[in-house]
Design brief:
386 residues; alpha+beta; OB fold (Dihydrolipoamide Acetyltransferase, E2P); 2 domains; five-stranded mixed barrel; four-stranded mixed beta sheet; 13 helices; 17 strands; 22% strand; His-Me_finger_sf; Endonuclease I; endonuclease activity; signal; endonuclease
């Protein structure tokens, strides 16, 4: 009788029960779309489904005439039409040329595997920050798992459709081109802003809450109002800087309106932005003094890009005030906001994150139908304000 070594005996036993040499034992099977919808906990997973269109709003998925390459929808059946049975996939810029619906309409009906974070997108069960795309049953090529390095020193040579007329420009020409693009928008009333902010600033971990801008606190959507611990509508470009108030237009533009604790909002008041000062009660990491306000580090770039947006969107050419930036912190009621040098530094140090990008997309898809170009192209900050 042959004598078995201990290692050979273990291998033989594992093989007998199908655990040795079986990739199925060590590689987790992709989730179905139904499983992905039920597991929206931020974990990373691969989801397998059929491409059924492009989501353009929380309950809208289109199957033709795709406006861009930013997203696609998956379902467990190629014939699914109910959005409640779909998962919405965010397509990062590195994958758009190969997996975006506008560039690849033939993907409709194909079964694919996508790896990403099981997190809401368009306020809908989603898969965000995707790291790999492949047709079902194949291995993603290396180039899809390692997005190429891109330069941020100048506008890209090829722009997506929305920004076509701005491509290749800089300085005043770029600013003018962007103004023409983004001033085409749907305008909200000040009352409509309440509901819009509940969608744009929704807490990714709790759909019943919003995230307060300066405080960073997650708070129930239902607690909006004027009470001491309620949240209200913060004008990041202070409405007194240009005296535009809350009238439809700059006073209701949700690209710079954010939820904030009532008392923290009052502390910020109409201060310009700069570094330094005293700690702000109820807003850890934020500071203020007699002439300026400094937000917490995690949103410094967000604040800067909102200010850049306002300075480009409102140029005094469509009946609204002309807003501009300068390097002062004593702007009072003049239509100026500072400090430009500090805001540029904040934008560079705190690039757009998933929350800010999702917010931009929700505003575009569901509310104003225009975008903040400095979230999509942070490099345009230095192209306009060198």
């Amino acid at each position: 009788m042959a004598r078995w070594s201990p290692l050979a005996l273990v291998i033989a036993l594992l093989a007998a029960v199908g655990l040795y040499g079986s990739t199925a034992a060590v590689a987790a099977a992709p989730l179905t779309v139904a499983q992905a919808i039920a597991t929206q906990n931020g974990s990373s997973a691969t989801v397998r489904g059929y491409v059924v269109g492009q989501p353009t709003a929380t309950t809208t998925v289109i199957r033709s005439g795709y406006p861009n390459d930013y997203a696609l929808a998956l379902a467990d059946s190629a014939s699914t039409t109910s959005t409640s049975n779909m998962v919405y996939v965010q397509i990062p810029s590195a994958f758009r040329a190969s997996w975006g619906m506008q560039s690849n309409p033939s993907l409709l009906g194909k079964q694919i595997d996508v790896t990403g974070s099981l997190s809401a997108y368009f306020s809908h069960p989603g898969l965000t920050s995707s790291t790999a795309f492949a047709f079902a049953g194949t291995t993603p090529p290396t180039s899809t798992t390692t997005p190429p390095t891109t330069t941020t020193s100048a506008p890209p040579s090829a722009c997506e459709t929305y920004y076509t007329s701005a491509c290749g420009k800089s300085g005043a020409a770029l600013k003018s081109a962007l103004n023409t693009i983004i001033r085409t928008q749907t305008k909200l009333s000040y009352d409509q802003v309440w509901d819009a902010l509940k969608a744009t600033d929704q807490d990714p971990a709790n759909a019943n809450n919003v995230i307060l801008l300066y405080s960073g606190r997650s708070q129930a959507k239902s607690t909006n109002g004027g009470g001491a611990n309620d949240w209200n509508r913060e004008h990041v470009w202070a409405k007194s800087h240009g005296d535009f108030g809350t009238a439809t237009g700059p006073g209701t533009d949700i690209h710079h309106l954010r939820p904030e604790d009532v008392s923290v909002n009052a502390t910020r008041g109409n201060l310009d932005f700069d570094n330094g000062g005293n700690a702000v009660p109820e807003a850890p990491g934020s500071k203020y003094d007699g002439d300026s306000f400094e937000p917490r580090a995690a949103v410094k770039g967000d604040v800067a890009r909102m200010i850049f947006y306002m300075a480009v969107r409102y140029e005094g050419n469509d009946g609204y005030v002309n807003l501009e930036m300068n390097n002062s912190v004593a702007n009072g009621s003049a239509p100026y906001m500072g400090k430009l040098s500090v805001l540029k530094a904040w934008s560079a140090a705190d690039p757009p994150d998933a929350f800010e990008k999702r917010r931009n997309q929700v505003i575009f898809d569901s509310y104003q139908h225009n975008r903040n170009p400095f979230i999509d192209h942070p490099e345009w900050v230095s192209a306009i304000w060198p």
